[in-house]
Amino acid sequence: MPQFFASTARGLVEPLELELKELGLKVTDRYIGGVFFESNWEGCYKANLHSRLASRILKPVLDFTAYQPEELYSQILRHDFTKYIKPTQTISIDASVNESKMRDQRFVAMKVKDAIVDQFREKFGVRPDVDNTNPDLRIHVRAIKNQFNVAIDTSGDSLFKRGYRKEVGEAPLKENLAAGLLRLSEWDRQSPLVDFMCGSGTFLIEAAMMSMNIAPGINRKGFGFQNWLNYEEETWEKVIQEAMDAEKEELDFKFYGFDIDKRVLMNAKDNAKRAGVDEVIEFKKESVATVEPPVEKGLIIVNPPYGARIGDEDNLRDVYRDLSFTMKHRFKGWDAWILSGNKELIADLKLKSTRKHFVFNGNIECRFLKYSMF
């Protein structure tokens, strides 16, 4: 049975493993950057459509050791890449190299490309072109200490690109990271969520899609595997229909987003509408200093700015103090989860966290902290 690799952000591997198991997929191993699983192609399609936490679903095709360009070239030829696309279609090579004799990843990408297009030329007399923007077949090459791993990308665009977000705030949170943090919070999917600094609405939209059982990939334009010769259209249509049949039409609770930027709130409303969850999210222009509980009880989740992304750290200290005051004095009895990439600013809350997770928001190491307002 084919083996696949679901990649994700650092810190989300365990919840991704749980998610894949919930999808009925057989997890075989875990790695620092993701999870291996075994499945037929229907399972691959399901993972692409339903995984909220994965960045990509890759299919490993080669593992080998290479020290010289000639070795790399000949090892790539061991796999038949001509079975995936026609020679008139396009490819791209995504290479990363660490602690290897061939140190230039652009050179590695070029050598891999040469081997693949030569394979096509020898078989068909013509070769595929390179398209780094929207290729039909994306090949990932990773080299660490001269050990090469080659995989084909079944996803196409990264899976965090759900298709609903056209406009974002100044410091957007990737959709799959937002979904992963919701998983880590152990929110029950049956109670209100409140975000004091909702920005483009990512936390709330992802949460609403979870509660309404809307597949995260349902609004995407397409997936990489749809461009391939082995694409099973009937199987894909079955997976899509099952996902649509499982959606809920309404909820008996709502989600609440606040922000001081009117323009960003308009974008958030548009994003929610494209995601099909605008009926269950209420957005309101309000400062974190003056937010009142919109319901009797729920869960707070906030991604406040932390300097590394937006601006002067000193200007944010008052924001964190306002956040702390609002939670302590207006939201007694609530639990709150806060994502922060700045230890100094989080100290300005002057609150003691009861739980902690380490995750990466891009290249920024962050703490995802739980606070209980007694």
From TrEMBL:
GO molecular function: RNA binding; rRNA (guanine-N2-)-methyltransferase activity; rRNA (guanine-N7-)-methyltransferase activity
Top-rank lineage group of the source organism: Bacteria
Keywords attached to this entry: Methyltransferase, RNA-binding, Transferase
InterPro entries for the chain: DNA_methylase_N6_adenine_CS (IPR002052), RlmKL-like_Mtase (IPR000241), RlmL_1st (IPR054170), SAM-dependent_MTases_sf (IPR029063), THUMP_dom (IPR004114)
Parts forming coiled coils: none
Pfam families in UniProt: RlmL_1st, THUMP, UPF0020
Domain THUMP: 43-154
Keyword RNA-binding attributed: yes
Name the UniProt record assigns to this protein: Putative N6-adenine-specific DNA methylase
Species assigned in the record: Bdellovibrio bacteriovorus (strain ATCC 15356 / DSM 50701 / NCIMB 9529 / HD100)
